[in-house]
Amino acid sequence: MMLKVEQVEKSYPVGGLFSRRQQQVLHGISLECGYGECVGIIGASGSGKSTLARLMLGIEKPDRGTVQFAGREVSRREARGGRISAVFQDYTSSMNPFYTVEQVLLEPLRYRGSSAEARGVQGGVTAAVAERSDGAELSRVGAAKPGEGISWAEQQPRGERAVIRQAASSRGEGMTVSAGRPRGAGGWPTADRQAMLEQIDSLLHEVGLDASYRSKYPHELSGGQAQRVCIARALATDPSCIVLDEAVSSLDGSVQLQVLELLKRLRQQYGMSYIFITHDLQAAAYLCDRVVIMHQGRVEETVAISQLRDVKSEYAQRLLQAVLI
Amino acid sequence: MEQTVLAVSGLNVWDSLTGKLLVQDSSFEVKRGSCLAIIGESGSGKSVTCRAVMRLNRQALRQEGEIVLSGVNLSSLPEPELRKKRGKQMCMILQHGMRAFDPSCVVGVHLRETVAEHLGLGREETTARLKRAMEAVLLKDPLAVMNQYPHQLSGGMLQRMMIALALVLEPELIIADEPTTALDAIAQYEVLEQFVRLRERLDCSMLFVSHDLGAVRKVADELLVMRHGEIVERGELQELMSGRRPVHPYTRELIDARQTLQRHFTQMMGGGS
Q: Does CATH place domain A3-98+240-322 in 3.40.50.300?
């Protein structure tokens, strides 16, 4: 199983600032999603769908229970390693308004670049630091385990990180050693930058936009275009799973269908899996293999799309009835 | 009594700061007892049109054009006169119930104040009427609901409260600006049901704005499609949906998108059952 949620419970504090009251949002949720599968999560507002999404993305930790991604705890960054990404409902607030589309897409690419090169660069770092005639440095480098080049460099105090970076760059490794805080594209070696721009173009092409969008700012994009950029950004890290939290709900009729078709095509092409969270049963039926119906923090029913008409629970039947035909 | 409740002609709305034209030469009529729906993508000028009718756009937006409500020209009416008409003769139902009610007091205060202002009834009579209206929109235990703050109620409940308020005020025209967009499927269904029944009860006219063709189909008689501030399509809803006459490509696209999703869903549900 790729994503496995087991007996998850989550509660949030409610009431005033000093109130100790807790409201339980999720009550023992369990669900699974295999590789290449598309699971829809359906429920009314306040049923805990978005909380579940945040837990699956590892942004928050459950109070009880586990969320595992490829057999490891998802809240650990190295377990995710860019293999799980997200698209949210509010496309305007999910992009930095000061970034152009190019900068928006560059960030995940850089992350992917740094994690992919981790192993390759590690030798460089070790050698570079070892060049200093400093016994302490040498012994510490020795302590770093193979394959941990990046995380080790990251863990060092700020001053030493600069030294490592300097040492590495003097050997022509570029700044890939320390990912640090991503900034403008200025400090990048031109060859890398060119390759990444090409990648950005192909990503934009993938979601049906052309290279001219690279220099645009989020406010210049329409809702559909902005959501496409968000999807491109989610694709950039080459994920095996994308969590779509109401990704099409705020788009208008015809645009909604276009984005749904785009998601369908991307899935066939890359064999990703989706966790598709929505309150729109018709959209879920269009995209998903299986839907999980949630009601007040509990899983009401899990049903394959082809068996949707045979739902048993009362709530699910009401939901079907409410679909406007 | 004439046949049209609201007649808008040559309405232009523009932003005085940037000079951008938001609504361009828009003219339409709402017939007595019928429901006109405006659909279009976000930013196409639907909400601006609605607010222009009520003259509730923010200061920077200027408007010109004739807006006639039951023979009275609203665009030349002084503000205090218009205030009396808002709520009493035309009632607006907004997208976000949370924002429509005053968050600092219980909803009952807001409801009573509005009813007292427009109808000038005593406290008991007001409460009795509100109670009846709220029961009519299937809100259980109206008195308890009236003593709650907006944040304690769900979106669907707040939306139904606004419909209840409209029931009490009995306006000639109801302007509903995306009333179901912020709601989930079940609440949406319930609120739409109430809209249909509201029309049956009051026999009022309605201007219904939405981007969801499914919701529009349930309540509207006539359809207006807006795009980039212009009206690109108008006509009887049934006629447009059935494809009996050629339509603007954009309208076609909207209808097709809806039908594709629907067809898929019906197939999943086992073919037309």
A: yes
pLDDT category of residue A87 using cuts at 50, 70 and 90: very high
Q: For residue range A168-220, what is the model confidence (pLDDT) as tens digits?
A: 444 444 334 444 444 444 455 566 788 888 989 999 988 888 889 999 999 88
Which residue on chain B is closest to A315 by alpha carbon? B186
Tell me the HSE value of A202 on the side-chain side, using a 13 A CA sphere. Answer: 10
Per-domain boundaries in chain A: 3-98+240-322, 107-183
Q: Are the Cβ atoms of B189 and A325 closer than 8 angstroms?
A: no
- Closest C-alpha to A232, from A259, A268, A271: A259
Non-local (6+) Cβ contacts of A31 within 8 A are: A5, A39, A41, A292, A299, A302
Q: What is the pTM of this model?
A: 0.73
Alpha carbons A214 and A207: distance in angstroms, whole number: 13
Distance CA B46, CA B254 (A): 16
Q: How far apart are CA A232 and CA A252, in angstroms?
A: 20
- In words, the CATH class of domain B4-98+173-268 is alpha beta
- In terms of Cα–Cα distance, which of A130, A129, A131 is closest to A161? A129
B104-123, pLDDT tens digit by residue?
A: 999 999 899 888 888 888 88
Smallest CA-to-CA distance from A235 within A17, A84, A28 is with: A84
Interchain contact, B184 vs A323, CB within 8 Å: no
Residues A113, A124: Cα–Cα separation, whole Å: 16
Q: Tell me, what's the ipTM?
A: 0.71
Please state the rounded mean pLDDT for residues B201-218. Answer: 86
Q: Which residue do the tokens 């207006």 mark? A: B224
Looking at the partner chain, which of B42, B186, B270 has a beta carbon nearest the beta carbon of A252? B42
